[in-house]
Amino acid sequence: MEAKGIIFTALDTDHDNIESWNRWYDLEHLPPNIAMPEIAAGCRYVAPPELHDIRLPTTGTYPGFDDGKGVNVTIYLTSVDPGDAIQAMTEFREVLEAGGRMEGAGRRTVRTGDAMDLSWVVGDPALRLDDRDVPHVGHTGIRVVLRRGDGDARAAAERAVAVDGVHGVMSYTSRFFPGLEADIYLLSGVTADVTLAIRDAAPYAESAEIALDAPFDGIAPLDYSFAERIRASNLPATLDTDTVMAPRDGESA
After folding, report:
1. pLDDT band at 253 (very low <50, low <70, confident <90, very high)
2. pTM score > 0.90 for this model?
3. Sequential DSSP letters for 163-227
4. CATH number belonging to the domain at 5-231, selected among 3.40.50.2000, 3.30.70.100, 2.40.160.60, 3.40.50.1260
């Protein structure tokens, strides 16, 4: 199914709730959302301490990702206009709530949420992909770059796919934050190493204002081996209550 855009959400949970929340997400929350006709696919990601250590910028990061926040990211590919998809998902949440299907997740919060339109894609030429294939390419991690200004982003992406472990790049335009663009790099291998290699081989031009440059590992369903590394780190162990931007009350994703 051809992807029209994405719903992008950053989330956090208390350290003592990591396994319970992730299990609820994998088994009870993700399936009904992916089954919606407006959703083409859904993937989940996590930034354990070693990926937070290379998150940029180190100060003044994009709201929702500062001070150790935004440990988890969910990305839904939409098969329709992403604005329509996020509206449908928000309405569907009421059905899930009525059925008691939002219970049992424990303390969690959405830091930021957005509906984004697909602008362009660049695939690894060796894979011989059509443009519509690129968002569906297999990967084990992602690099998320939130930026304002062009910064020769497409040229940077074309250099990036020559780096071993970079299979494709998609660029999206925010519906909620004017002027914000999101470049999502699909990676395999050691996420931190590939991210650092991309930064060296394919930097953005100075005209780009980089609000966030953050790598995440893909979450394999029911494998939460990252939990102990997070608990042993200095990442915030309990939630505060701030939510930057999210549809309705920040719980639709």
Report:
1. low
2. yes
3. STTEEEEEEEEESSSTT-EEEEEEE-S-HHHHHHHHHHHSPPPTT-EEEEEEEEEE--TT--TTH
4. 3.30.70.100
